[in-house]
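Slide 14.
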Amino acid sequence: MAALVASAQELTPAERKASIDSFEKVWTTVRDKHWDPKYNGVDWQAVHDELRPKVETAKDKAAVREVLNDMVGRLRQTHFGIFPAEVYHDLDSKAMAKESGDANSDEAHPGIDVRVLEGHAIVTEVEPGSPAATKGVKTGWEIKRVGETEIEPVLARISKQFGDSTLLDLRLERAVESRLQGKTGSTVQVDFLDGANRKVTFDLQRVKPRGKAVQVFNLPVMYFWSEWRKTPANIGCVRFNIFMEPELLAGTMSEAMKGCRECKGFIIDVRGNPGGLGALAMTVAGYFVEKSGLQLGTMYLRGPTLKFFINPRLEPFRGPVAILVDGNSASTAEILAGGMKDIGRARIFGTRTAGAALPSVIDRLPNGDGFQYAIANYISEGGNPLEGIGVIPDEVVRPTRGQLLDGLDPVMDAATHWIGKQVK
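Slide 15: predicted structure.
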């Protein structure tokens, strides 16, 4: 019986060809797209010549995956890896859309923001006036099923694959959010556990996200929004979902500066912000920096090197500044937070960021497995690489489900408390 099982797992001729094609795709991608033309000191052609025979004689898919991971592992850099086809499927929004019948899926959404806390998908925010809010969905509720998909097994597979990666929180959140998204006007059935751990099921309509639709180059349409407020503790707080729309973002920042001249401090909330236009990190930082010549860090690509110099405003905010981050803060959000921390202008609260100063890419290989690779590197002003490491908060604060059920925001509370101590 054991021999039969082993035989069933052996590669067919078609699978062997797909495995060899996958090997070549991985090797060629690194050759052509890695930011360092010297491949971190590795003789990349020699690696190819050494490992190609091993993939040609690999007995099964696991052995092929081992050879490919050995190859990219020679680079000794994060964000390079191979993972099984079933995990790729969990992360592939197009596959999810096709699975749910939404082949023309867009970003329509029922108005729920989600984070995965201790292995559970928890509602962290419900957009006012959204279908979810109308049905009575509350922060702290747990999502158990979306459509036909039970969420916990999906989260378990992703956690197993990315357990040691700074991208774990981001991958988990997107796996849930992608299943909630779909065509505008369509509905999705969602099973929740409410605050009393009772099962609640709602058919939630998907509607267009709030904000202005924006599109950059050939990227998908995204929706930008920004807002600011003055808290009861006389602290300014600005929040925006992506680094896009320079005029709108600058308008929000300018309004916040005018309305907060006498504020005790300022909070920049980039939790869940996946990044966007890198130049806007310099723009936002300029509202809080007086001295010219400072920079947030340096980005290294295959050709150019980009230095992120801060553009100081004429009347910047001079009080204490806190930046709120989490595992879903990525790219430009990390550049802003890491750079402001390094120049001593902000204190960081929350959890470690995604470690994706530039988004890594995940491609599907000919054999169905996923291939993750980074296309650039970024070093913050303090000399720290962000790719695969992320920004480490000065004060680590991770919300619990109980706090969310009680309507609390412990990360915001910690930042508010720190600012209060600075101005006594």
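Speaker note: Residues 1-8, 93-105 have pLDDT under 50 and may be disordered.
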